[in-house]
Write a sequence for this structure.
């Protein structure tokens, strides 16, 4: 039986948080029930934890845990932090749900300081089971037309996106895979560790290397991308 909890890669999130420590502030974008922020507190109990979340039951639960929660639209609104003031940003199983990836990464990169960390977890379009589905002429399960997912990701494409928009702006400090369809948990853990780029989910620990220059907003304009991406008021 497949264990879908492995899709969230909690062991990798905790491993990356340990590498990112010490840190004082952690922001989880799309925090859900607060599991990743709890891991951040486990690693560094003195850290301040913040969440972006809009689903009311999750908002109430997060606040009951003493987490500061902001309800906003990440595809339109600015994050409520000054430039370079958030040591670690977590965005786990969120990016596949959004269209406005340029705006979201603009805001993430704005609030993270040089040497700050960004932890990303996304479904893997190049997972073994998706490769098999494509070979059979079928739609990959992580980006079905009638699903909530609107984007697909692979390891190479994520890194190319970052370097195209913000050249030499991020360094990859950690990478791993979690879960491995269609195998049961014991086998899935082993296979994901051995073949991370074929796992169900892929996870990145990124370190910001230089001052940000609004590259995520200028890229779609410079490349004349024929989609009406949101790039902020007046742009």
């Amino acid at each position: 039986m497949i264990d879908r909890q492995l899709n969230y890669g909690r062991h990798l999130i905790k491993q990356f948080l340990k590498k990112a420590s010490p840190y004082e502030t952690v922001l989880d974008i799309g925090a859900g029930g607060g599991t990743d922020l709890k891991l951040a507190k486990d690693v560094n109990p003195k850290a301040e934890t913040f969440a972006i979340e809009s689903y009311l039951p999750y908002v109430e639960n997060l606040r009951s845990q003493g987490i500061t929660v902001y309800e906003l639209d990440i595809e339109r609104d600015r994050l409520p932090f000054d430039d370079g003031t958030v040591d670690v940003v977590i965005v786990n199983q969120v990016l596949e749900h959004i269209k406005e990836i340029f705006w979201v990464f603009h805001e993430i990169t704005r609030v993270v300081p040089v040497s700050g960390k960004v932890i990303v977890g996304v479904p893997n379009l190049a997972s073994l089971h998706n490769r098999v589905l494509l070979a059979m002429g079928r739609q990959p399960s992580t980006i079905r037309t009638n699903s909530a997912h609107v984007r697909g990701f692979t390891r190479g494409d994520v890194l190319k996106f970052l370097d195209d928009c913000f050249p030499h702006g991020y360094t990859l400090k950690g990478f791993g895979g979690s879960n491995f369809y269609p195998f049961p948990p014991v086998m899935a853990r082993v296979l994901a560790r051995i073949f991370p780029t074929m796992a169900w989910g892929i996870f990145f620990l990124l370190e910001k290397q230089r001052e940000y220059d609004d590259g995520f907003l200028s890229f779609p304009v410079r490349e004349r991308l024929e989609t009406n991406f949101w790039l902020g008021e007046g742009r």
Summary: The chain has one domain: 4-124+151-222.
